[in-house]
Amino acid sequence: xxxxxxxxxxxxxxxxxxxxxxxxxxxxxxxxxxxxxxxxxxxxxxxxxxxxxxxxxxxxxxxxxxxxxxxxxxxxxxxxxxxxxxxxxxxxxxxxxxxxxxxxxxxxxxxxxxxxxxxxxxxxxxxxxxxxxxxxxxxxxxxxxxxxxxxxxxxxxxxxxxxxxxxxxxxxxxxxxxxxxxxxxxxxxxxxxxxxxxxxxxxxxxxxxxxxxxxxxxxxxxxxxxxxxxxxxxxxxxxxxxxxxxxxxxxxxxxxxxxxxxxxxxxxxxxxxxxxxxxxx
Length: 281
What we know:
Layout: H1 16-24, H2 29-40, H3 44-50, E1 51-53, H4 63-66, E2 72-76, E3 79-86, H5 93-108, E4 121-127, E5 136-140, E6 154-160, H6 161-169, H7 176-185, H8 189-196, H9 200-214, H10 216-257, H11 262-269, H12 273-280
Parallel strand pairs: 3-4, 4-6
Antiparallel strand pairs: 1-2, 2-3, 5-6
């Protein structure tokens, strides 16, 4: 069953292939530079002039191979900025990203170089879940009491998209960076138009999302992902239901051992007479 986009629906930039295309194609260069500047504090003009894309070598005809990449890599005079779109939280996610960040640091070190010449790797995690207290959390290796930084080359940012969405839907005013990050979550043409009206930087994202939503390669992948998620959700619901049923049967079994009547057990647990008879065997 194919799930088509509705009339005013677009594929949100949180969808991994769209996210990668937006931040590696060059069509949203101003949007990218302003967003990174807002997050990291790096001068926007400096970024606009010097920011380069590293991993954009795959063409659109190889979009399926492109989805296997889990990162966006950008460079600024040799230093690396790693953008990660984390749609789901799971045990080991942050450890995986830690290992990846360290592997990038290792790759930037050339044979014969001194350790002081190792490039900085900034990892920006855009999280579609709330794991930390703040909207934007900054992590560095530091001494707990004195707050002394051990290594300036190691820095991570975590952005909580749900916290920014909550702020918007509560009608709180968003600052410019928050507006950019909120737009990444939007799947509606009208809302994108309203948010980007009169702003050429925000218009870059709006136009790119609309163009990609019209492309068959991206729409097919999005359709497949939504179907996969529907199946996964059905599996989770079934597993939860089975777990609850098993727990109910265990309660009924305990009640049997304690001498409760069949009528009381059925009334309290909601199991059928047939299920109760099976427990007796």
